[in-house]
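Much of what follows relies on a compact textual record of a protein's fold. A record is reproduced here so that you can trace the correspondence yourselves:

. . .
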Amino acid sequence: MADLHPVLWVMLAAVAAPLLAELPRQARVPVVVFEILLGIALGPHGMGLLQFDGFVAAMFGIGMGATLFMAGMELDFNHISGAPLGLALGGWGLSLLLGLAAAALLYLTPLAHAPVVVMLALSTTALGVMLPVLRDAGQLDTNFGRLFLAAGTVAEVGPVVAMSLAMSQQYSTWQEAGLLLVFLVLVLFMALASRRQHPPQLVELLRRHLHASSQLPVRLALLLLAGYFVLAEAFGFENILGAFAAGMLVGMATRGHEHKTLRHKIDAIMFGWFVPFFFVGTGLKFDLKAITQDGLTAWLVPAFALLLLVVRGLPVLLYGRHLQRHERLPFALMSAVASLSLVVVITDIAVHTGHIGAPVAAAMVGAAVLSVLLFPALAAQWLVRGAK
C-alpha cells in the first residue's frame, strides 16, 4: 500500500478529517488538527504510507501559500478601525516584549538559540480558528467580537511582515525596510485601483466567464497569488508575504454580496485541494521521535504552550474598561490560540535557514496544536458560563 500515489493518501486524510471532527464530543476540535494527526499517522513516524518528498513537498509549499492567501482574504480593516485597532497594536507590541523575554530565558537551554523565531512564533493568534467559536457564542458582532477581531488581525499580519524582514538574508536591514515599503505601496496601489476602477466591459467579461468552463475570475485570483508569490521573492522576502498580500488584494476587491459566488469558488479550490496538502504535510514533517526521545525537548511542548498563554494572554490587561470582567479570561485564551499555519511556516523557514533545529520546531508546532485543542474549548465554555 505504500506505493500508492500520494494524492490518494492526502485526499483520504482530507475527507476523513472533517468526518472525525463531526464525532460527538464535549469540546469542538478544529478540522486542521485532525489533518495534522492523520498526517502523523500516515507519515514516516507512523505507518510509513506517505513520505514528505517529491510531489508532496512541492504541494506543501503551494498549500502554505494558499493558507496565507486565505488568511489575507479574511481581513477587513473597516470593522476594526479606531480603538479596537489601537488596543490590538498595543497588545501585540506588549506580546513582542514578553516573547523576547521568554526567548531570553529559553536561550539558557541548549535547544532554543533563536530569539526572533521564538518571539514571532509566540506572538501569533489563530483568527480563522476562533471565528467559529465567536459565532457559536453569539459574540461576533458584539464589542468583545470587534476587539478580538482587531487583536487577531494584527497578530496575523504582524508576524508575517516581521518574519519577512527578520529572515530575509539577501539585503541589509535598511534595504529590506525600503523594499518592504515599496512592496506594500505597490500592494496598496493595486488594492485601491481594484476597488475604485470597475470598467463596465471588464465587469461584464468577468461575469460572463464566472459560470463558464474558463472560470476566468477564479483564474485571475490564482494568477494574482502566483504573481505576488514570485514578486515577494524578487524583492528578497519570503514568498508567503506575497501570498498574504495577494489574499488581501483579492479580499478587498471581492467584498459585497455580488462577489459571494466568486469567493465561494476560491474557498472551494483552496480549502478543497491546496490547504490539505499543507496541514497533512505538516503532520508528515512532525517528528514525534525528536520530542519523545529527548526529555528536554519533550518538556518544551507544554513550556511553549504555557508561554503562548502568557505572551498573548497578558496583554488583555491593557483593555481595562473595554472588556467586562467575565470576558477577560476568554479573551486571553482566544488570543493565546496560536496560528498553526504561521507557526508551521515560521519554524519551517527557520529550520531551512538554520535558525533553529528540527526538535525545537517540532516542539513549537506541538505547542501550537495543543493550544488549538485546549484554549478554544475553554474560552467557549467560559463565555457561555459568563453570559448566564
The mean pLDDT is 82.
